Amino acid sequence: MPAFSADHLVTVDANRTVKDKLIGAMVRVSTRRRISVTDLVHPRQAFFGRTRTDIEIPPERMQAMMAGTGFHDLFGHAISTEEYVEQLVEFEGIVGKVDIFEHAPLELKTTGLIPADPLGSRASQVEQLAMYCVMTGKPLGHLLYYQRAEYGRAPKFRAFDVEIVAGEPIVREMRRRRDLLIAALDRNDPSSLPRCEWLEKGCIYAEICGCGALESLPRAVNPSTVRVMEKPALAENLAAKIRDLPEPDGEMRYILNDLVFPRRAALRRDGVVVSREDEDDLTSKLEWMQRRGFLDVLTDTVWYGIPGASKRHKTVIGPIKTSILLFEGFPTLIRKTDRKELLLRERLVVDAPYYTDRLAMECALAGVERGRLIVYYARLDDKFMVYDIWFKDLDGVRVEMQKRLALLIGGAPVKDLPRCEPDWMTRLCDFGDACACREVS
What we know:
The protein is α+β, with helices and mostly antiparallel strands. The protein has 2 domains: 4-28 and 273-439, no CATH class; 33-245, Lambda Exonuclease, Chain A (Alpha-Beta Complex), CATH 3.90.320. The protein has 14 helices and 13 strands. It has helices at residues 16-32, 37-41, 43-51, 59-79, 118-121, 123-136, 167-187, 206-209, 232-243, 262-269, 282-305, 348-351, 353-366, 394-409; strands spanning 9-14, 35-36, 85-91, 94-101, 105-111, 140-147, 156-164, 226-230, 310-317, 320-327, 330-337, 370-377, 383-391. Strands 2, 3, 4, 5, 6, 7 and 8 form a 7-stranded mixed β-sheet that branches. A 6-stranded mixed β-sheet has the order 1-13-12-11-10-9. Strand 10 (320-327) and strand 11 (330-337) form a beta hairpin. Helix 1 (16-32) packs across helix 11, helix 3 (43-51) packs parallel to helix 7 (167-187) and helix 6 (123-136) packs across helix 7. The longest helix is centred in the middle third of the chain and has 24 residues, at 282-305. The radius of gyration is 24 Å and the shape is globular.
């Protein structure tokens, strides 16, 4: 059974002009070395993270990092919506990703012990949030701590407001650290970078860093630049949102990709547990993380490499709130594939219908007949392609979306929903034999 977008697809072109434009922009982005807020918080560690990629993060620490990331994702979507979770912000060549940014930046920190005085004992965390505040022009941010359930202790939240008293000193320090880090990378010499807080705290670069005799990094946050106040009411409000989440068989939050794979969404709705044989395969996860390097640069280039080319288009369909990337005015998807050969444009709707279906939906929501698909081929020496795809009858696409959404919300049996395409996906389905697609040969 062909993908529904096959009936709406007019033509597919490989856009070499846009590809070359992105390559040029990527060179400029790479040359100026975009610096992140995380880099600024620990610039010396950031230097070695970029220059000594041969030093691997220990597996136990990597597992903890991935577990923390997973909790952040779950927590963010539990208390907010997709349009506010993990928001990218930019300021004078510095980029950052705010955990939740709705009315004010909110940063979540998981910990084994919540600090009584974050400014005194966790200044780097306060500093990170303060940087997000000045980058977004917000006078106030929220710092939320989640204490893990360990050693028989119950989990708990504690929240603090971080008020910006004087923003300009923070901005000056951000610029100073940015320039120091860029200069160090240009010279391949970290000697000008001060010691970070990880000395004698299990830093993986301890044997090569040589920071023991250096001065500590002066923090941009202190009582003259920020005011930190505990907010028990905020912690209780957020904790209440977690407690009030519906049970797995109750109301479910849907995302736009659930309309691309409605059977998967229905299985989750019905409480079917995903079974992954390689769930604990740390090696494959590490390889995946390493391959994200080029993808991150490509994504960064699309968003920021060509000034004014990209913007968000926020839209709603039923209970689904989503944000569509418009690149040069066209809905644009950026995807990674492990295919060992390029997708043929004439077979795109057959071999990768999940791309064309999703793009058709975004075009329908944006009211634009032309969409753009950027595919990164991770196993082909960092090769990527840009496909321009034209669709027709966008009203028909919207009708199909509403139909799928109504079936999901109405509790329709899995077998009554469109199956996942193409056929090979059924053999790799995370839901195993519970996937109704396997009933069809």
